Write the structure tokens for this entry.
Amino acid sequence: MVGSLDSTVYVLSGEDGTVSWQFTTGDAVCSSPALGDINNDGILDVVVGSYDSKIYALSSQDGTVLWSSTAGDSLHSSPALGDVNSDGSLDVVVGSTQGYMQSMTGTERYCGCTQQATEYTRPLR
Ligand SMILES: [Ca+2]
Ligand SMILES: [Ca+2]
């Protein structure tokens, strides 16, 4: 699984390198995709940021968008997955070039909390 400057996330077969599926964002994808079961259905999901200022949660099965969320600026860094709010479900944390570190709960497409990365803190919505 890899992002590309051609705005696309590619998932390649481990057996022969053929493209299993691909997903095109609105701009270059420089962040490394993160894998985790963010919606608690027992299946790994893909979370990746894009220069188009959005973070995408995709089904690892076929690249279907589970949800997307818009940050304040382009996303160069890779998202991290962890249970930030201790509710038993993975959350998504990512920094943007705007200077914010943002946290989203994986299951509810909701910005649960923010972490102050600079002197600014704001929710996603
Ligand atoms: Ca899942
Ligand atoms: Ca959580």
